[in-house]
Amino acid sequence: MTSPSSASSSGGTLLDEAPLLEVNNLVKHFPIRGGLIGRRPTGFVQAVNDISLTVGRGETVALVGESGCGKSTTARSVLRLLEPTSGEVRLDGVDVMALNQRDLRRARRDMQIVFQDPYASLNPRMTIRQTLTEKYELFGHQVTKSTISDLLDTVGLAEEYADRYPHEFSGGQRQRIGIARAIALNPKFIVLDEPVSALDVSIQAQIINLLEDLQDELGLTYLFIAHDLSVVRHIADRVAVMYLGSVVETADRDELFDRPHHPYTQALISAVPIPDPRVERRRERIVLRGDVPNPANPPSGCRFRTRCWKFEQLSETDARRCIEEPPPLYEIDGNPAHQASCHYASLRDVVRS
Amino acid sequence: MTTPPQSGREPDTHVPAEALMTRFEAPEPGAADATDTTGKGKKASGQLRDIWRRYKRNKLAVVGLVVVAFLMILAILQPWITPYDPMEQNLLNTRKPPSDGHWFGTDVLGRDMFSAIIYGVRLAMIVGWSVMFLSLIVGLALGAVAGFRGGALDSLIMRVTDIVLAFPALIGAILVVQIFGNGIWQVVIALAILSWPTAARLMRGSTLSLRESEYVEAARSIGASDTRIVTRHILPNAIAPTLIYSFSHIGVAVVAMASLAFLGIGVPPDIPEWGTMIANAVPSLNVEGESHMWVFPSLAIVVTTLAFAFVADGLRDSIDPKLR
């Protein structure tokens, strides 16, 4: 029940083995500066609030949530592309937070990222060969003629593309180039920051399959950021659901999709369309009202309560607990791999395909 | 899952916006798709060829380029072209209208106007290009640093540009020349001091927007240093507006030098400079038969400035079509 079903195909995750990536109490606050000579921040956007994550070797952990919930900020903070406010990040035993700029640059070899927008993530004035060669040079590697062609071959592009500029490629092809840049020099860990959400649906599948193949071939570990649950369901071993800067529920993939406990997760899963019209018609959707609250001024207690469908049904005394007491991550049914941060977490029948 | 009818790996339906633009503008076949589909384009020449293809379409810019090239040749070959020493006076032959011996006539001191005008071309080219390179280099460096670093350094640099830009251009130039004394290089420095702030601001603006771009973040993610990010990733993508500004400023510099010289400031009065020549011709403005004394230097200024303006215009359209 606890071991992800696809773990065997992706190199095997042993429970007692130390995780490749360990994130503890990660916090990222952006200061809001106001006023004319505003040097002193007048407030903080609490983009990432006390997030803890572990990603096992060869595993794919998906981070899902609606836009603006802090998924990308979390990923960038883990990689220190954004400097986190506080927290601990360990990658294969290396304390990433303690590295100085020089060592950090060297350590980037092991932690890579594929960006969401393949149109923006490639330098328009550099050919593909220049873009890819740059990485080898930066890490002091000799580039022979076959280096780049082998790399392009790995991501399914022909070598003759190497001397073209990014604008000569389609979105899917560019994303392959972005992936090639990330997997060059065999990193241990790759953040996939919504790598397919800017692509055509027909091409999404190709890229997802490519990512899965590469994971099998190279033993890669992924942190997959997405808002598309059907993609997550396909690729992830474990899923963490984020809302307003915090993880609200985390579980193995099948467990999460079959037995979601947090009202937000339940709402998200109920929104996934089902490709069977008969089931689709019976599907009961939980529609969340209102917008995500301002992360500079989040609600007290449970951050989700302002939009929670369950909160509305609670008695006044029960509801007070949601207002006053921020819910910790509760273990669900004694399963340490399944946690939800809701005082009143319970199973709810969700119609799914 | 339904498979699309195409059997290829990926239907390449993406047409770059640039290509679309050219298709609408230039219906001639072949020109529309110089972004070759066969992959035979050489490394860097591909972009240059694209720029030239767009540049060619602007006929005025091509004319401007020819004139600029011609002026450059005149400037370089001046010592061998001029029939007389441009400084040589002949007090027995003053204010003579154009003739076989003196194509553009002679001035108040009997100097050959043709030789003086060509010498003026040399001056204009030296000053124009020097001002451009100086202000471009200073502007790029300070603008990139201000935009990339931000913070106190950014504020400092931007306040300095504010101060310099607060001076009316000519008054500022007069002030600087008064401080450094007369001379060609003093004029160059004065004009460069007055023109780098705009270049720096343009560069800062482009840098600011590119600093947050994903490919800069991507460069950082593969361990690139700040210096490398600025020089390899930001500069090539941010340089176009600044470059075009600096280039269009060449004509402005030429006019500014002439204006200063007209007022008797900057270039020493014994050196034949277009502004000085016009100033010398002021008493002859309404004298019949002496109009050549102000017509030719004025024409020289107009032709030079227009040529550079046309080229700058063409460059703007061809280097970066988005700037239009």
From TrEMBL, chain A:
Kindly list the GO molecular function terms attached to this UniProt entry: ATP binding
Supply the Pfam families for this chain. Answer: ABC_tran, oligo_HPY
Does Nucleotide-binding count among this protein's keywords?
A: yes
Q: Write down the InterPro entries for this protein, in alphabetical order.
A: AAA+_ATPase, ABC_transp_ATP-bind, ABC_transporter-like_ATP-bd, ABC_transporter-like_CS, Oligopep_ABC_C, P-loop_NTPase
Domain of life, per UniProt, equals: Bacteria
What protein family does this chain belong to?
A: Belongs to the ABC transporter superfamily.
Q: What is this protein called?
A: ABC transporter ATP-binding protein
